[in-house]
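Protocol step 6 of 9: fold each sequence in the batch and record its structure tokens directly after the sequence line. For illustration, a two-sequence batch is reproduced in full.

Sequence one:
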Amino acid sequence: GIAQVLFFFLFFLREYIMIYPCTVVRWFNRVGDSPNNDTGMWMVKSSSTGDHTFAVIHVRSAHLIPVFGTDPLPSIKSHHVLEIFTLFYVNKYADHHTFEIVC
């Protein structure tokens, strides 16, 4: 599944010397039964239009690209994109290891 991260936290189990990085997320729902024909990427939409579904999960990442319409965009900030758009492509071309190499 795809989700928006709301905040991060850790569980510490001292007796086992283990750390569990977790996050509270809001889920997105998949659109359709197959990837988009034009892009080859899956599309998802925010679950905020219906029941809000929240969960605590282990940390992973995905790169979402908004599905732009034909109307001009208003002036928006990047941190508002998940609230403004309701439909997204799941970028299967993103290289998640780049962040490990650069940082």
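Sequence two, same batch, same settings:
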Amino acid sequence: MGFTRVLVEGDALNIVSRINQVTPDLFSIGHLVEVAKFLMRGFQLCKMQYARREANNVAHALAKATLNFGEDLYWVDKCPDSVMALVATHYNACFS
């Protein structure tokens, strides 16, 4: 898809914190954390930040929009209007 700069938000503070640590994660899910760190290095810039579950409306709406499909969906230039409205609200809240 050609993305070089990515912001990833997660609502599990413990996981976000572990991914943002520089030292290797040696806990039970450490291998998954290390895979995430490895994948993040494939971007010019990739940040992982915590988002409260209440602020995670965009991800919830996207997940809900795909429930009726039995295959992977990709929206690159345009997403459903209902989701786009949430994206605009989220963007304004983050950058105003």
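Proceed to step 7 once all outputs are recorded. Observation for sequence two: The helical segments are 13-20, 30-40, 57-65, 81-95.
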